[in-house]
Input
Amino acid sequence: MVTLEMPPSGSGPARLTLDGELVIQGISELRSKLIETLDGLPGNIPIEVDLSEVESIDTAGVQALVGMLRHVQSRGGYIEITHHSPSTFNATEVFGLQDTLGVGRI
Amino acid sequence: MDEGKKAFLAESSELLEDMESALLLVEASEGRDKEALNSVFRAIHTIKGSAGVVGIDNVEKFAHKVESALDLMRQGELRPTPESIGLMLECRDHISTLISVAVGQQKEMAYTIAEQVRLIEALEALMGEKGGPEEEIIEETVEEDEGTGFRVASDNWHISLRFSPDVLRNGMDPLSFISYLGGIGNIVHIHTMLDALPSLADMDPESCYLGFEIDIETKADKAAIEDVFEFVREDCIIHILPPKSRISKYVNLIGSLPEDRYRLGEILMQGGAVTERELAHALEIQKAGSDKNIGDILVDEGIIHKPVLDAAVQKQQGQPVGSKAVEASSIRVDTEKLDALVNIVGEMVITGASVQQEAAQIKNARLLQAVSSMARLIESLRDSAMRVRMMPLHDTFGRFHRTVRDICHESGKDIALEIEGGETELDRTLIEKIKDPLMHLVRNAADHGIEPQQERASAGKPQRGTITLRAYQETGDIIIEVQDDGKGLSKRKIEQKALERGLIERERAAELSEAEILHLIFMPGFSTAEEVTNISGRGVGMDVVRRNIEALHGSVDIQSAEGAGTTVKVRLPLTLAIIDGFLVSVGETSFVVPMDMVVECIELSEQARRDSHGRDHVNLRGSVLPYISLRDMFSASGARSSLEHVLVVRHSGMKTGLLVDRLHGEVQAVVKSLGKVYKGAKGISGATIMGDGTVALILDVPALVKKALKMQAR
Output
């Protein structure tokens, strides 16, 4: 449910794609996977997150997304969510988190 | 510990101390000292407020109870009797425990919880006697607010939600509740509180960390809104404010939420729940009701932008910004920063010394002049830096009022505590470390020294016993005396006990002087208390007191007259960080002797040394002076000089000589600890780095004097 694509030419942002269900069931695995993936990235390579394949998300999933952003930002890295799916977009709206999770607004 | 809690801990321990001394004043004046009662109230009120801000709910709730009782006392509905004051003191202690638990300095124990239940019951019983339940009081204040009729203009409902961490695990999803809420009205604004949400690595992903502030435009009534959250009622704290609520409702809401109140205010404003003007008014009410120190914490924490707030308030009040800053005559400084400053000054003293050495070789008059004025400045810089670390002993002494009061209540004795020389200043670190030994001495004096009233009366003494705490300076040392006018120490009993415990041999007992017998009580394993009482004599004896004091380079002495009282005299150095020393060397090794212990220097010729026949004594103007050869003691290398010197040092009235090769004169030494490896090294108390970069060892003169005396005894 977490896929990482490194930039083809060696420069530019890495692309992190999340898919499937970002819900409380399996949230611990998602968390470990995300930490493992993010910490495995070289240096402070910028990260673009694609959520367009996410089928559903709940509060736990939203928390994990914000936690992920903070994880990267706290070590000085750059991360932004570039694509939303209808469900992640809806959750963002309901929670009024456009400023935090909004496209290109991080 | 985060910054907010750290600041809270520092602030609250000061406030708790204030509260204690003010409570004692209230008791002493039998409630006539209204100002003291007010300051007790202010202290608890501030603690309550700050605890709420940093999110220590337990302290906030408990402090609230105490505050209610104090309020009754302030209104004259509850009499400040020794019992009620005693209860307040217990509550104070309990808050102190709660805070230590909350900041993680102490583990929570079942006892703490039981104590809290007991205290709350006692408080309620106390309040039950006089005045109604506290809820009524709150209602009254709300009613008053209604009178002023200040209401917000907003037509929307405001809903404030804080979910419990378990809500997700219990199968509830706040997302769906809020979506559903959107179905019964138009959500004008929602702010998700992410404050408590940690970074991914620190997160328990199944816990909920979120809170929400929602403004909704709806025709539904309060019950309908509550129904939305019916299934999560157990897992959620919910506040619902109807349109055009009284501003006081918002004030209460802000006060009850865990987040920073100013930020909450901004969020409310963004959502249109309150206007800027209303917010300023609400914050004013909040400010009036609490101490400004909370604001300081928040500024420290970096959460609020004080100028912004001040400006907002100023707009309403026409009050100049920054007037508060003028009031404060002191600031709180982290001890770490202070230590860093002292450290740098120390390095500067060293560097200054090396510059001076170099300049002396260049022999340029103008350079020498400049260097000498620099040296003078460095010296005064050093003195100022040291003075920053100095604190008067007054506060430390003052805390023993409580100790003595408690002992009086437990034992039925009547004891007055007198304080002399409280303005005497001592290094902060020393003050911290001397508290416990002093506490032990004061308890000893009150428990074992002062007799019960009847016994005193029959001995023809005033019924009220007196313990005097006295501090003064004497030749570069600070002396602290704990004196009581009690029964004194029985030399016969001490001797007997020491014999029983095998601390002395029977044959030697007769030879001991009175002073030596008294000193036996500092031996490990000695306690004269015939029964172990609650107050002292818990197996921690005077030997521990002595060891603690000696660890601070101090010494302790005791004088006692049977029937008339006992005086324990503690001698402490002014500071431990920088000393004036005398530099000597043996072969290639340099030593520093603390200057205040140096008496004089004499030459020891080859001839004189031979005259002493290897017994290491020297004739000092007719009297015999034992000396220690530092060369032998520290196995120093290098050739022995033909003309050696004896440095005469003195400690607690005893003189000893130190045999060295060369004398170099006065130096300022920045004391560096030797670290763990050399901690056990006998005769050395530290090290210092000299101007030329070499290391000199600082001699532990008290230990050397003792060693010389032992040699002499043999």
Observations:
- The CA atoms of residues 315 and 396 of chain B lie 44 Å apart.
- Residues 130-149, 290-328, 530-540 of chain B have pLDDT under 50 and may be disordered.
- The interface with chain A takes residues 168-169, 173-176, 178-179, 182, 189-192, 194, 197-201, 203, 205-206, 208-210, 212 of chain B (CB under 8 Å).
- The first helix of chain B runs from residue 3 to 28.
